[in-house]
Amino acid sequence: MRLMWLVVCCALTAVHPVSAEERPACAADPGPRKAVEAFMQAMKARQFEEAYQYVTANMTDGRPVDGWAALQKKMFDLGGVSIGQVDVRDATIEVVDGKTCAPRAKVPNVLRAGDVLNTQGSVEFEVYDVVLENGKWRIDAQNSLYQEDEIRRWFPGDVIPKFDQTRRSFLPGWIRIPKDLGNIDAGTVAKSTQPATTPALSDK
Asked: What is the CATH number of the domain that holds 47?
């Protein structure tokens, strides 16, 4: 089972590495990682109003907190979504000219979660785009990785499980829900669980 998101926002862009000696102090800011950790823990506890505080308007399509939280609850309930282990890694903050930190970062996360179609759960490799907005780090986009080279780039020491080409997944709803899906029902869920084909990944 692969957890697939309603919208995969923004392709991963290159973050050019800078040596430890050249990186400014701001590059070690724990803020981006803490924002993702707080968001994931709130979603795991189904505290959707709290989770809302850690996402941008891009992730909510501008919905107010009560409307966004209600949609997350509906999606979790319909899909039987259960978040297990969350393993958020250190952030990579973009450094400009080798001395200035840009107000954006990428935060890798290994998510273990299940749903009505796979109660045993599965492993999902993610990278979150996090931006500094009004002095607070917030998630602006989420990217699920399926290609082996991309996974190894962000998770070089992790074992990559093999994905069944015909596994199906309910679409968890905490990632950006388009406005035209405001009225989600069981029919929407059924359409969202059609077989998806993805090349099998080696477990080397």
From this structure: 3.10.450.50
Q: Is residue 8 part of a domain?
A: no
pTM of full prediction above 0.85: no
Give the residues across from 144 on adjacent strands. 126
CA distance 112 to 172: 13
Is residue 11 in a domain?
Answer: no
- DSSP 8-state symbol, 198: -
Domain that holds residue 68: 25-191
pLDDT digits (tens, 9 = 90+) for 47-87: 999 999 999 999 999 999 999 999 999 999 998 999 999 99
147 located within any domain: yes
Residue 4 placed within a domain: no
Terminal Cα distance for the chain, rounded: 19
Report, as ranges of residue numbers, the positions in the chain whose pLDDT lies below 70: 1-22, 163-204
Amino acid at 44: K
Residue 123's DSSP bridge partners are 112
Give dist(CA 83, CA 170) in Å, integer: 13
Domain count, the chain: 1
Distance, CA of 73 to CA of 63 (rounded, Å): 14
Give the phi and the psi of residue 120 in degrees, each rounded to 5: -80, -15
